[in-house]
Amino acid sequence: MTTKEERTTPEVEELSPADKAHIARDAREARIRQLLRDDDELLGKAYDSRLVKRLFTYITPYKNSLIVAVILMTISSLMGTAGPAIIGFAIDKGIRAGSLDVLRFWTLVFLFTTVAEWLTNRARVRIMAFVGTKIVADVRSELFRHLHRLTLNFYSNYSVGRLMSRLIGDVGVLLDFVTWSITGLFRSVFNLVGITVAMLLLSWQLALVAFAVMPLMLILTNYWRDRVRQAYRATRQRLALINGYLNESISGIRVTKSFSREERNFQHFDDLNLSFFDANIQATRLSALFFPGVDFIGALATALVVGVGGWLVLGDALTAGTLVAVVLYVERFFDPIRELAQRYNTFQATMAASERLFELLDLEPDMVDAPGAVPLPQIQGEVEFKDVSFAYRQEGRSVLKNINLRAEPGDRIALVGETGAGKSTIIRLLSRFYDVTDGALTIDGHDVREVTSDSLRQQLGIVLQDTFLFTGTVADNIRYGRLNASDEEVLVASKAVGAHDFISRMPDGYDSEVGENGSNLSVGQRQLVSFARALLADPRILILDEATSSVDTATERIIQRALDTLMEGRTSFVIAHRLSTIINADQIIVLDHGRIIEQGTHQELLARRGRYFNLYTMQWAQQNRPTFSVN
Amino acid sequence: MTEEQDNRPPKANSTWRLLGYLRPYGRYFSLAYIAMLLGTGLNLIVPQIIAWAIDYGLSEGSGITLIIAGAIIMGIALVRGVLGFTQRYYGEWLTNRVAYDLRNEFYNAVQYQPFAFHDQSHTGDLMSRATSDISESERFAGIGLMDLTATILLLVGVVVAMMLESVPLALLAMIPLPILLIVTIHFGMTVEPMFKRIQEQMGVLSTVMQESLTGIHVVKAFAREPHELNKFDRENNEWFDRRQGLIKKWANNWPFMTFLIMMSVFLLLWFGGPKALEGEITVGALFALISYALMLNTPVQRLGFLVNLAATAGASASRVFEIMDLPREVVDRSEALGLTDVKGDVKFEHVSFSYRDGLHVLADVDFHAKPGARVALIGPTGSGKTTITNLIPRFYDATSGQIFVDGHDVRDLQLKSLRSHIGIVLQEPFLFSQTVKENIAYGRTDASMEDIVAAAEVARAHDFILELDNGYDTRVGERGVTLSGGQKQRIAIARALLADPRILILDDSTSSVDTETEHLIQEALSELMKGRTTFIIAQRLLTLKHADCILVVDDGRIVERGTHEQLLAEAGLYRQIYDMQLKDQEEFVALQDRMAPEAGG
Q1: Which among B67, B217, B273 has CB closest to A94?
Q2: What dihedral angle (degrees, nearest 10) is formed by the CA atoms of B78, B80, B86, B89?
Q3: Can you list the domains of chain B with their CATH numbers?
Q4: Which of A47, A94, B114, B545 lies at 20 to 30 Å from B534 by C-alpha?
Q5: Is the Cβ of A457 closer than 8 Å to some Cβ of chain B?
Q6: What domains are there in chain A, each with its CATH number?
Q7: What ipTM does the predicted assembly reach?
């Protein structure tokens, strides 16, 4: 913290340190701008009617409630606006005219408006609480559903962290807007109009006197608006940087410590923090100027009204009560303006947030079911690739070329080849995460494009490299494979894959919590649970991306056995890493640059002394673990 | 950390401590509060002037009075404008400055926590302390406290001013005030737990969403979208209910507060009106009383918020201080040595280690690794291999026994200098969302571009880096490209190479990479190990065969030690592991040895 002194704001510094601070700040801002280069938030338009219209489509289902709310708000505003006028009448027509009855009458009218304002406001806020919260729940739900329609291709480009900031951050901004700002905007505008009308009706001369300050108001607002927009945007961006860096610092703390980078990291954090502070002060200076400015203009209007009005009263052109009422209105006239200005930041943030949300909602899923798609009937597990070619739509480069491949029910197919050879693509086509570009892929003679993808996937078992478990109990996670499975069935599945032993040793057995992403379990245990999950689903076709993560010997043995159990009697496609899997396969498919270059059993391919032989000797030789099933 | 929450300091202390953050900025604090005081006072005078203008100006027909009144109002407005600016600007300045200080302090507190802390803490929890708790605290310490003071002063001032006008009428107007205060404070208090419940539910909802998106492969693989959507709907609806409940509470309260203020005005008109009629008080006085009552409307609505803020700020600040107060990582002794020109001699003498819970992890570990030696550690998961390697860079301190590097007890060395000579490559490397270049230079920020490229080449990373869009300037992570596990690993190896440590700790297992990449990583690792004292958590037969010494760890003890051949002959645990796990690699090791010359290395 030694650097703090020289970094405090220039106002309290001597001249030369102030210059130094200035130079330091410029350098810092230059660094920050580098980081902001590829920021999500563009300045955009201050008001985008396209966005606003679309926001309003979410309100349509609650149109009736909203109309009621607006009516209630109109009433409450009318009642509120009428208050000063009624007080004015009570003073003029009652007290000054010396009539107690009239005074009583207007006093009771005042009571009535007060009660009416109270009740209508109460009802309105309740309605808006429902509508506003509901809209936000709807938007979040729509976005979440939409995300589940998108293919995995999308997820490889869009991190979960960013998605979460859409679902929580941006939706939260919207929540602020719909709950308070919609009716707030209505009310402010309505009050502004109402007060203007009331003043004109009471005394048009005085009203005009009060409105004489409007040009000043316009100048002030114009000066303020653009600047404050920039300033708030700068603060939002910098806050995002701070939070991002903080998050990363925590996740990467072990690396930081092993390289002793704490001090440098702190310097960088301090840069971000100070830049955020500066941006905030900039925004503050603007609002600190604006709001007293509005107050001052308001006072100017009051002074003018008192001066001119008083003179009119002296000339008997105006009653004192009217003057009092107008003075009260002038003071209120500036409230809605202040309120609108205060909502300006929310409004800007809403524009930016909804733009990002809509952009996400507008993404079309890469793949949807064909219009006439039928559910896939119960299958045997016969798979055929007929002249299949595939290219990713964006890139155009073909990833698979003329793949011909046939698997009989129960066959084990091992896919081998270098990175980018096309192994994963074959698996993705089979899982129908993508559709073939050319040729056809059939399962039991059904072209996969003619069946619904849900019905297809329900008969596939997919076990991927990184086993993912959900927070919940072990039993919950196994049951994910078949939601209506009985406890008995869960037990049978976990016994079959050899997971029962460790599960029953856990403190709560099957009811033990696995923790966030299974953190209470070891890597091997997680794999076993995911095998049990797949087994319970009992698919006819199994797709397996073998992991080669480090587990101890005993676990590895169990995993080997579990894999055998899992593949037993099912058509299996395996991206193989374990030698045992490869050697025991009915067919080994050797891929290179999207083509099948060799195909056959282990013995056949070894005899050929081709690519497989090379791979086998050069690579698996040193990296494979227990191969007790090889004899 | 949940256990510690019970004995954390009480809220009130935290509130005082939070306010202590204002102390260094006394000058700004005084400016803001003096401006606030004067501003509030002026606000109270305005109705007086208008009343005076109404009574004297209008009743006595003196035009000059009106002009004077107008001029005074203007003058006051001008002064008020200046005061308003000062109050707002310096108030916000204090708010942001406290936030800045808290954030910096929090950041360093987290950075300097020992490993044991990070083993147990959750990123999400720390983040929520750093964001929402700090922002809650700053708002109270800055603007919140000032607003609260101003509101209370205004309330008192209005009461006094009304009393000065007319004691009986003032008392009359104040009838609704006690109810108002009770409602406000009750509201502030009940709304806090409701708000907390919403936050909690938001946490649950976030977890459901995050999990579903993180596990989207699994969701899609099992076609479980409907199940996930159901889970989501349940939590989303619960969130809706809770939030709606809060706003209903809100709806029941604030319009009622305004209503109570209006009741004051009504009482004034009902009882004061006839008095003005009879001339007992002036019309101006009645007007002033009404103005004062109306003046309370906005502050009273804010009071609910402010009471609530004051209540939550203490709790929030205590959550921030809780982390700051945790003892930091081992601090260097004053006479600690800076380590230069390390040879890489590492010696463990009767080292035992247990975590805070007293569970024994290591017992009487004793070995000596000469400079340049390659030490392989093998044993079942949880046997203590990783803990042994963690003790060398002092990520933890041994519970008993001593660890020497080049003959110095590690506790006598400056932490930074010790760690700068130790390189670590873990199984799941962590890269920062910076450029590739910055990541490689993470351990040596002054490295030249040539050095960086050279390290990348040795680490077999250069080729794929050049294929990235911006080469070495490509950003990785969140907003940049996503690297595969194997690519990350090789960048981590380049990072370690560039730092050029004398002692190396690594994990020779690589998870989830294909065979070709694995091959490259193995090559890179063997380059990295050249000429350095290396501790390897070993999975591969080849590594073990090339090791100068193998330590077989079981249940926190070194049960066997020696070279591969020696240990095989011993027929102990190593032999068992070999038979079960390693033997099958034998054939291929031989095969590879034979193939290597043919393939040209």
Answers
A1: B273
A2: -100
A3: 7-325 (1.20.1560.10), 428-500 (3.40.50.300)
A4: B114
A5: yes
A6: 45-203 (1.20.1560.10), 469-538 (3.40.50.300)
A7: 0.81
